[in-house]
Structures are given as structure tokens and as C-alpha cells.
Write a structure and sequence with these properties.
Elements (H helix, E strand, L loop, with lengths): L2 H12 L4 E5 L6 H11 L2 E9 L6 E7 L6 H7 L6 E2 L2 H8 L19 E6 L7 E4 L6 E6 H12 L4 E3 L4
Parallel strand pairs: 2-6, 3-5, 5-8
Antiparallel strand pairs: 1-7, 2-3, 2-4, 6-7
């Protein structure tokens, strides 16, 4: 277990957030992630690192795993120029994450709060959510309510809820 994952697990433990995780081969797509989600009994979230057209504003979008990301739909709701995917370098700089393992727990490393958190409002309907905690060989399950009511306040984040169509 690397030091970034250890810091994430230590943070969850200190906040008394219950979680379960499994280890597996490194997963590279949502179909593989869905398998881990089924094993854990949780919705595996799709996590996207985005930036505005100028590359000055950065966003982490959490959405229900099977939903498609539509740039225009999300951009319009947050009143920003057309969004695109942020670079792997910027992702690592801000959240200590690498592509393929993006997750909202990495927000603890964004101490300047450079990244804005966007959440698909449909995730409120799930008791549990699942994602990779900074490594595609781990899948972690936690209560959605613990994420929003314990983790996000600790990390200093208030999410913006958006509607992502099917």
C-alpha cells in the first residue's frame, strides 16, 4: 500500500467512516469497475477530472457509473465555457491522483481548494458508493452519507449538484 492510499485510509479511520475495500488486478474501464461494485454491493462512481476552456478552472465530476458525460450539458449547468478533460500532470499536482484512479478522496490533497466538486444529483439515491482510492488495484465502498456529511466537511468542500441525463 503506497503512502497516498495509506493517508486516505488513515483519514477515513480518523473520521470514523466505515468502509470496505477489495484488491484485484488493475481495472482500466467502467465495465471492470462495475464488477468490483457488484462484489462490494455499491454503485461504482465514474470520476472525471475536467477543466474549463482556458485551463484555469478545474472540476471533479462524480456521476453514476453507467451515465455518459456530455460536455455541453454539464458546462451549461455550471456556467462555464465548454469543459474538457484535465491533464494527468495537473491531476497529480492538485489531487495526487493518476488517470484511471481518480476519486473524490484525493480532494484531501487539494489544500488550496483549486478543484470544484460536481456531483450527479442521482448519487443521492444510493446508500453506498464505490471508487478506486488512488490505485486501480483497490476498490473502496463507503456510505454516500458519510462521504457528504463527514468527509467533505473535513476536506473543506461543498459540492455543486448537477443533473446528468442518462
Amino acid at each position: 500500500m503506497n503512502e497516498i492510499i495509506k493517508k486516505i485510509f488513515d483519514t477515513l479511520d480518523s473520521l470514523e467512516i466505515e468502509y470496505t475495500y477489495i484488491t484485484h488486478e488493475e481495472y482500466h474501464n467502467m465495465a471492470e469497475c462495475a464488477v468490483a461494485g457488484k462484489k462490494l454491493g455499491a454503485e461504482f462512481c465514474k470520476n472525471l477530472f475536467l477543466q474549463d476552456r482556458q485551463g484555469r478552472e478545474f472540476f471533479l465530476l462524480l456521476l453514476v457509473g453507467e451515465k455518459k458525460f456530455r460536455t455541453a450539458e454539464v458546462s451549461k449547468q455550471i456556467n462555464r465555457s465548454r469543459l474538457s478533460f484535465g491533464s494527468d500532470e495537473k491531476l497529480y499536482e492538485l489531487m495526487k491522483e493518476k488517470g484511471g484512479s481518480i476519486n473524490p478522496l484525493g480532494l484531501i490533497f487539494d489544500t488550496d481548494h483549486t478543484v470544484d466538486l460536481l456531483i450527479d444529483s442521482d448519487l443521492k439515491n444510493y446508500e453506498y458508493i464505490c471508487f478506486h482510492p488512488s490505485d486501480g488495484r483497490y476498490s473502496l465502498k463507503m456510505r454516500y452519507k458519510d462521504f457528504t456529511d463527514k468527509f467533505l466537511p473535513y476536506a473543506g468542500y461543498t459540492p455543486t449538484y448537477i443533473v446528468v441525463s442518462e
